[in-house]
Amino acid sequence: MEAPVPTATPDALPPGSLHNLYCDHHGWLQSWLRARLGDHERAADIAQDTFVRLLVTRRLPSAGEGRRFLVQIARNLVVDQWRRQRVEQAYLQSIAHLGEPDTPSLETRAIVVETLVRIDNMLDAMPAKVREAFLLSQFEGLSYAQIASRLKVSLSSVQKYMTRAIQACYQVLYSE
């Protein structure tokens, strides 16, 4: 586990710090990504997205931490991209058998994939027992007592797990 990267707000840094960070490190970051991904276009996109993320979050690294900070953000973006591709491929495989009239439009596909990615992220963020209780309830239709037996926990533990899982669902639903 990497140590957290110290950050400062843009107001605490000299004017133009994001511009300077971009000028000083964009080329290096793009080369670093290209060497790892083997794809010039993806490396360019992720390098650009890294700086967009900095612009949106308004977080900048402390002096001397620029490259380490940029690498951390870029790695997270690559992981996000891989996860999204995995979810999208699974969805496309699930609808591949549909005939032309039943095939969702590109817009509908994009909405479904975005929703599935958000659900995947939500499930991934849950503790293992909470996730397992939720999935057993929702996909296997087990009662709380059956889940408690399967997980070898008390009924009150299952109730707490389900409360946490439902709260996570509401956060996903109402976060935008």
Automatic annotation (TrEMBL):
SUPFAM superfamilies: Sigma2 domain of RNA polymerase sigma factors (SSF88946), Sigma3 and sigma4 domains of RNA polymerase sigma factors (SSF88659). InterPro entries: RNA_pol_sigma-70-like (IPR039425), RNA_pol_sigma-70_dom (IPR014284), RNA_pol_sigma70_r2 (IPR007627), RNA_pol_sigma70_r4_t2 (IPR013249), RNA_pol_sigma_r2 (IPR013325), RNA_pol_sigma_r3/r4-like (IPR013324), WH-like_DNA-bd_sf (IPR036388). Keywords: Sigma factor, Transcription, Transcription regulation. Residues 117-169 form the RNA polymerase sigma factor 70 region 4 type domain. Residues 21-86 form the RNA polymerase sigma-70 region domain. Pfam families: Sigma70_r2, Sigma70_r4_2. Belongs to the sigma-70 factor family. ECF subfamily. This is Sigma-70 family RNA polymerase sigma factor. It comes from Pseudomonas typographi. The lineage of its organism: Bacteria, Pseudomonadati, Pseudomonadota, Gammaproteobacteria, Pseudomonadales.
